[in-house]
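Quick one, tokens below. Sequence please?
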């Protein structure tokens, strides 16, 4: 599908984040294709919610092959925390 996706996560309060997903499909994309994409996308999100609701911080997470940059990303992202994480 030809378009642009913008995802924004905004901390609201401790343990609460507002997630906004905005998609702009090119006008040449068939509207039925866009509708089908969003229906599948919304259904996929529903599958992720139970996982996100039970996430916990692990100082040394078990990683699989291909997730090597995850630790580097966590170190970079830590600069945006309002308080240090407590394992």
């Amino acid at each position: 599908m030809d378009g642009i996706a913008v995802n924004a996560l905004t901390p609201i309060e401790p343990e609460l984040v507002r997630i906004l997903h905005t998609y702009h499909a090119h006008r040449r994309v068939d509207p039925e294709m866009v509708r089908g994409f969003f229906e599948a996308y919304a259904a996929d999100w529903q599958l992720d919610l139970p996982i996100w609701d039970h996430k916990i911080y692990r100082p040394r997470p078990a990683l699989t092959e291909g997730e090597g940059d995850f630790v580097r990303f966590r170190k970079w992202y830590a600069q945006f925390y309002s308080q240090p994480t407590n394992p």
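The chain has one domain: 3-80. The chain has a mean pLDDT of 85.
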